[in-house]
Amino acid sequence: MNIRDRVRSGGLFSRLRRYPKQGWIAGVCVGLGEFFGWNVKLIRVLLIASFVVSGFFPVGVIYLALWYLMDEAELDDAGRSRPYTPSGGPSTPPSPHTASNTELSSRFARLEQRLRNMEDCVTSSEFELRRELRKLES
Description:
Blueprint: H1 3-8, H2 12-15, E1 17-18, H3 28-36, H4 40-54, H5 56-69, E2 71-72, H6 96-123, H7 125-137
Parallel strand pairs: 1-2
Helix pairs in contact: 4-5
């Protein structure tokens, strides 16, 4: 078993994938963006800035190591990259827009419920009574 197989056998590198069709060079930044849920442009800017600041040796070597260690993402019938699934079977994940819309909808629903609770509290007769009692106490 070589070092590449040992590193990939478990942990982080077994789940990381690179997307060469969507990337500029090898798709490493796209793969990191997909894995961590970060914006790919931000990762590219950070990579280029660190490359300029530190020189080729540290950043270039790390990029080349990731290129070597990360598997290429599998392609579907249309030639698009399929996301990684631990079972290895085909998957149809929700689109990022659907996932973010669902997340936003649930967040706004919770906020709306909190706002309604506050409105109920402020508009209740008990609130008015407590406010009048505080005025009398002072």
